[in-house]
Design a protein that fits this description.
It contains five helices and five strands, in the order αββααββαβα. The chain has 186 residues and is α/β, with parallel strands linked by helices. The chain has a domain of 127 residues: Peptidase S8/S53 domain (Rossmann fold).
């Protein structure tokens, strides 16, 4: 039964990895996507998030960090009602294994709660660090922008190569490592 469980978990993790569609490592052509806010006014414009670097590029030029700062909650965060959720739990004491492009352990809002060894600490694409912020970000000086579980710890595991291309072997190894580390959520 255990090998079937690991196979199923590996398959699920592989399906959740970013699509292997090449994205440019250069500044992306910004196609603003205006989301309506809960009060009916114009919402935030969200920049594109690459999931892989261009495989034709000679050298993997990492995606630069965004200079944009979120100023308010968008409608999706309001619908999740995270303020109310955080009254019941913040995820304190839970380790979330994040299998993806890696996570920058020094990213703002993660406050030293990321365990990332080797290549898992090098997130050249930025996708894994972005997801870690959605999961366990504190929101920094804007606590209303905190993640779903701002008290959780992140175990960063690599499921892609440095360019963001998924690898079934890396995903399977990461799932085994996450179960061995007794992560509460994978």
């Amino acid at each position: 039964m255990r090998p079937a469980l690991l196979y199923g978990a590996g398959l699920a993790a592989a399906l959740m990895l970013p699509a292997a569609v090449p994205a440019q490592a250069m500044p992306l052509a910004r196609i603003p996507m205006a989301l309506p806010s809960a009060d009916g006014k114009k919402g935030q414009e969200l920049p594109g998030m690459p999931s892989a670097l261009d495989p034709r590029a000679e050298e993997a030029v990492c995606t630069p960090a965004s200079e944009e700062q979120a100023k308010k909650q968008d409608w999706s965060r309001q619908r999740l009602d995270l303020d109310r959720l955080h009254q019941h739990s913040t995820g304190a004491g839970v380790t979330v294994a994040l299998i993806g492009t890696g996570v920058d352990p020094d990213a703002a809002g993660l406050d030293g709660r990321v365990a990332a060894e080797g290549t898992a600490a090098d997130d050249c694409v930025g996708h894994g660090t972005f997801l870690a912020g959605l999961i366990a970000g504190t929101g920094g000086s804007t606590p209303r922008l905190a993640g779903v579980a701002p008290g959780a710890k992140i175990l960063a595991l690599r499921g892609t190569d440095r360019r963001g291309r998924p690898s079934p072997g890396l995903v399977a190894a990461a799932v085994r490592e996450a179960t061995g580390a007794r992560a509460g959520v994978i």
